Amino acid sequence: MATRIRPSSKRCAVIGGSGFLGRHLVEKLLGKGYTVSVFDIRQSYELPGVTFHQGDLCDKQALLTALQGVSLVFHCASPAPASDDKALFQRVNIQGTQTVLQECHKIYYNKDRLNSIKEMLLVLTSSASVVFEGTDIKDGREDLPYAKKPIDYYTETKIEQEKLVLKACDKENGLLTVAIRPHGIFGPRDPQLVPILVDTARRGKMKFIIGDGSNLVDFTFVDNVVHGHILAAESLRPESPICGKAYHITNDEPVRFWDFMSDILVGLGYAAPRYHLPYTLVYGLSLLLWLLSLLLRPLVAFKPTFTPMRVALAGTHHFYSCSRAKQDMGYKPVVGLKDGIRRTVESYPHLRHGA
Ligand SMILES: NC(=O)C1=CN([C@@H]2O[C@H](COP(=O)(O)OP(=O)(O)OC[C@H]3O[C@@H](n4cnc5c(N)ncnc54)[C@H](O)[C@@H]3O)[C@@H](O)[C@H]2O)C=CC1
Ligand SMILES: CC(C)CCC[C@@H](C)[C@H]1CC[C@H]2C3=C(CC[C@]12C)[C@@]1(C)CCC(=O)C[C@@H]1CC3
Fold this sequence. Notes:
Elements: E1 11-15, H1 20-31, E2 35-40, E3 50-54, H2 60-67, E4 72-75, H3 86-109, E5 120-125, E6 137-140, H4 153-167, E7 175-182, E8 185-186, H5 193-202, E9 208-210, E10 216-217, E11 220-221, H6 222-235, E12 246-249, E13 255-256, H7 257-267, E14 275-277, H8 279-295, H9 308-315, E15 318-320, H10 323-329, H11 337-346
Parallel strand pairs: 1-2, 1-4, 2-3, 4-5, 5-7, 6-15, 7-12, 8-11, 9-14
Antiparallel strand pairs: 10-13
Helix pairs in contact: 1-6, 2-3, 3-4, 7-11, 8-9
Bound molecules: 1,4-dihydronicotinamide adenine dinucleotide and ligand LHIR3OJJ.
């Protein structure tokens, strides 16, 4: 017979714990004395205090095994936003999240529980982009409506996922949920922002600024995102105002998109972009290219670098207010933007110009 693990408030699970944010979260949790079950389709590292469970989010049995003995779950698994596989996004972000909710209920309601679980706590990593439709957002608060016309499948399914998780918050039935909405996460080991930027620069395509370059954007150092998740988990109680709500977590230091990109590029020894191109022209071209890539898909597979989503992000304002997180859970960024950029640049020696 399998040994039953007694739940403890210092035991938690991180779904998607092999990923960029997930691993930083796991490392911080270990430092705070938690033991962690990681559930992911891949295992990318080993650490004392971490038990790995390799499996797909939609596999109920595998997930249930990983959640045994746990009363705090962080869900930060998702397919990469750059994918255009609609079915994959729907399966992982929507069905997979439904499975997480069902299995959390199952753990709570396990009749022969040795349990004594007071509540199951679920912290979802959502995204501030659930309200982004490709037009300016300045100091956006959490009460902005969800995007009616989401710009890609990633955003579309992140919206559904967040709705599911917040709706499932049910104090009577012992499931407490909260959604963290970070924006533009960066830091050591990020597989997206810096690698894509450097790749684009190496191919000679980072010479142009899209628009006039004055658009302000939030970028969030990964440690601040982790801090927001842990604060949320540790504030999540039935009487807490955070139950069933979404929270923006950013560096709270909006910066010009192109200054941020230039700081990273120059820090790694590449030239900063200098020439300006009109936003509408580049956005129109990116739409055409995207349509072309869909039409030609059966014959040739090509992935445009400048997708409509990236162009929209590069040419509009999108920064968000964190005042709700400050007020309800005492959030304050722990690493400033300048320091975050320095630490990030130093962590990529292999991506330096000429390396
Ligand atoms: N990177 C960013 O700028 C932002 C990310 N987010 C959200 O943060 C979360 C973490 O993102 P990152 O760490 O950047 O991505 P990542 O790609 O590094 O990590 C995602 C992890 O999920 C795992 N995963 C994917 N499909 C799975 C499945 N079917 N079953 C089990 N595990 C699966 C992957 O193997 C990976 O380890 C995601 O939910 C993402 O939507 C939100 C805002 C901004
Ligand atoms: C080619 C250049 C115009 C841009 C290169 C950098 C981009 C790869 C990144 C700039 C803003 C980033 C961002 C995300 C992914 C990487 C960028 C597009 C997200 C879409 C990741 C997932 C989210 O939830 C929102 C992010 C917004 C910012």
